[in-house]
Design a protein that fits this description.
It contains 17 helices and ten strands. By secondary structure, the chain is of the alpha/beta class. The chain folds into three domains: about 130 residues, no CATH class; about 170 residues, 2-Layer Sandwich (Transcription Regulator spoIIAA); about 55 residues, no CATH class. An eight-stranded mixed sheet has the order 1-4-5-6-7-8-9-10. The chain has a two-stranded antiparallel ribbon with strand order 2-3. Strand 7, helix 11 and strand 8 form a beta-alpha-beta unit. Helix 8 crosses helix 10. The chain binds iron/sulfur cluster. The site of iron/sulfur cluster (SF4) has 11 residues, from loops.
Length: about 400
């Protein structure tokens, strides 16, 4: 195809009554990697009390009606069909390119005139999803399983009818909501298309769970997790190293390993604690009721956790809050290798450790945001210089720079 960047494509706007669909604030990193289509099944979090979480603070939980969700799916379908039509028109045989999306933006200024608008995010989401094969959908927000089963089944059916290429539909769920579903309901949801649930275990220790107000105890986590596994739905459990602080570090690691060994989920995802300034846990820290671990203590805690896992899950550290991405592999096969990677870090000389930690955090930051502010740049440069000079303040400067980088992490 000979393509000119000033080409425009006018969408057939008579085909739809709205041009945008709702999108929630987050999705798991794996859904970003797979370019999942994001469909918002409910708004915000029905629990919203976990001390470490600020994602939905001050946002009221709301159910969305099946009709509302279907209307959003209609918009996604419209965009899908228009992108495909434009692609065929310009000789791309159904494929997506940046120029193609630019042609759609240029051809429909009344929708995409404002670069901050939701319609533009929607267009980007659908375009990336098509480019990745239109195979995966992620249902937002924090707890889709709180929906009444017949309503969720209708949504799943509608998704599959509209997008026959779908291979995977996933969502976040609270353990409490999984507990409320009967085995038959979970089975029906699996048959209707739910292929994976992401549950935040965070900790398997009851004191930690109570302190952070997770609203679920170890036993409930285990029963809920096992129910999901037995239904055939793939289960991804998130654990949060560091959540027990100094006080409960070891028992947090041991009990989390114990709970997850019993559940034996398909995936164990590490999401190391970052105490956000706008979270209630930050207040507890200020009041002296929570003492966070240093990064090296956190690595030690992860070693205890991995060592005590007795299951056949796949462990992943795919969240930017984690220091050691090497903590990844199939258990039990890769356990020794993972422990070896942790030990390799622990044995580095002090200045090497500082350099490694700063470089890792910098890489995560730049990977997500591209550029740093002047202030961040200054802090990082100062830290690097002090490491190079092996200055006495190298550790404090590095910690300051890392903490400034982490403040921006999603
Ligand atoms: S249940 Fe999840 S989304 Fe809700 S407050 Fe807790 S961590 Fe945040």
């Amino acid at each position: 195809m000979v393509y000119q960047s000033d080409l425009t494509y006018r969408m057939n706007l008579a085909n739809v009554s709205q041009f945008s669909f709702e999108m929630g604030p987050i999705r798991p990193p794996s859904e970003g990697k797979d370019q999942s289509l994001l469909i918002r099944a409910t708004r915000n979090c029905p629990w919203n009390r976990c001390l470490f979480c600020s994602t939905y603070k001050d946002q009221k939980f709301e159910y969305r009606s099946v009709e509302e969700i279907k209307a959003d799916i209609d918009v996604a379908r419209f965009l899908h069909d228009e992108i495909k039509a434009a692609s065929w028109k310009f000789g791309l045989a159904g494929k997506v390119s940046n120029e193609l999306i630019r042609a759609i933006i240029q051809g429909n200024p009344e929708i995409y005139g404002n670069l901050e608008q939701l319609p533009l995010q929607n267009l980007g989401n659908v375009a990336n999803w098509i480019a990745a094969g239109a195979k995966t959908v992620f249902l937002q927000d924090a707890d889709t399983l709180i929906m009444r089963t017949p309503e969720l089944l209708q949504v799943l059916k509608y998704l599959k009818e509209n997008f026959p290429t779908l291979e995977r539909i996933t969502s976040y769920a609270r353990a409490k909501s999984c507990l409320k579903k009967t085995p038959q309901e979970l089975n029906d949801l699996h048959q209707a298309g739910i292929s994976r649930l992401h549950i935040g275990l965070e900790s398997g220790n009851d004191q930690v769970l109570e302190f952070v107000q997770k609203g679920v105890n170890q036993e409930q986590h285990i029963i809920a997790g096992k129910k999901v596994v037995e239904s055939g739905i793939s289960l991804s459990e998130y654990v949060m190293p560091g959540l027990g602080g100094r006080k409960w570090s070891e028992i947090h690691a041991l009990d989390s390993a114990k709970a997850l060994s019993e559940i034996n989920p398909d995936f164990i995802r590490m999401r190391s604690l970052v105490v956000r300034k706008n979270s209630p846990l930050f207040l507890k820290q200020q009041e002296g009721q929570f003492e966070p671990l240093s990064e090296d203590e956190l690595v030690g805690e992860i070693a205890i956790f991995i060592e005590n896992l007795n299951c056949s899950s796949y462990v992943i550290s795919d969240q930017m809050s984690n220091l050691l991405f090497e903590v990844e592999g199939q258990l039990p096969r890769d356990k020794e290798r993972i422990l070896g990677e942790i030990s390799k870090y622990q044995q580095k000389p002090p200045m090497e450790k500082l350099k490694f930690r700063l470089n890792r955090r910098l890489r995560s930051y730049l990977g997500a945001y591209g550029v740093m502010s002047q202030e961040l740049n200054r802090k990082v440069a100062e830290a690097l210089e002090s490491i190079q000079k092996e200055a006495p303040e190298a550790e404090s400067k590095t910690n300051q720079a890392i903490s400034a980088l982490k403040d921006e992490f999603i």
